[in-house]
Design brief:
The protein has a single domain, classed as N-terminal domain of TfIIb, CATH 2.20.25. Strands 1, 2, 3, 4 and 5 form a five-stranded antiparallel beta sheet that branches. The radius of gyration is 15 Å and the shape is globular. The protein has 123 residues and is α+β, with helices and mostly antiparallel strands.
Length: 123
């Protein structure tokens, strides 16, 4: 499933696409909300691994504006619950992720991204 926690780790890997290939931009997506058990320790421990600006932009693209533009210093339960929701409960079911550099499109179908490249695209 494409969740924003996964999306935050993905970059384009098409041949010759080595700069400005992250984050992939969501296009024409359909989302589904799927409740997950809240684990504040997991969310707190994952926080340093996140590219914050990319996460906020992706969340906004899929219709969630609950995260602040800058990563907060304090991580209270209210903030961790919002972050948990954005990272783990928003599932992108259909659409595409587009590379901002080469415009390669990675389709998403039934929640599964197709990150495979044709032989001539492998680099």
């Amino acid at each position: 499933m494409v969740r924003l926690i996964t999306h935050n780790l993905l970059a384009c890997h098409a041949r010759g696409c080595t700069t400005n290939n992250f984050p992939l931009l969501f296009h024409d997506v359909q989302i589904e909300l799927q409740e997950q058990e809240f684990n504040p320790d997991f969310v707190k421990n994952f926080l340093p691994k996140l590219e914050w600006r990319a996460l906020v932009d992706a969340a906004t693209l899929v219709g969630d504006a609950s995260l602040p533009p800058e990563q907060p210093e304090m991580t209270d339960d209210e903030f961790l619950q919002k972050l948990h929701h954005v990272l783990l409960e928003i599932h992108v079911m259909e659409g595409a992720m587009i590379c901002p550099n080469c415009n390669h499109s990675y389709p998403i179908s039934n929640g599964i991204p197709n990150m495979l490249l044709a032989e001539h695209e492998i680099g």
